[in-house]
Amino acid sequence: xxxxxxxxxxxxxxxxxxxxxxxxxxxMHGIHRISILMFLACLVVxxxxxxxx
Length: 53
Description:
Elements: H1 2-10, H2 12-15, H3 23-52
């Protein structure tokens, strides 16, 4: 259930959906999603680099 919520939150299709929230809140959530995706990408790059050594 927890993983399902995270995957829904990070889904790009839900990023551009209509919501009743404030515009500033929508931008804040967008930036938060980008930072999570960048963090996960960095973990993947670090893992690949560690395996290649």
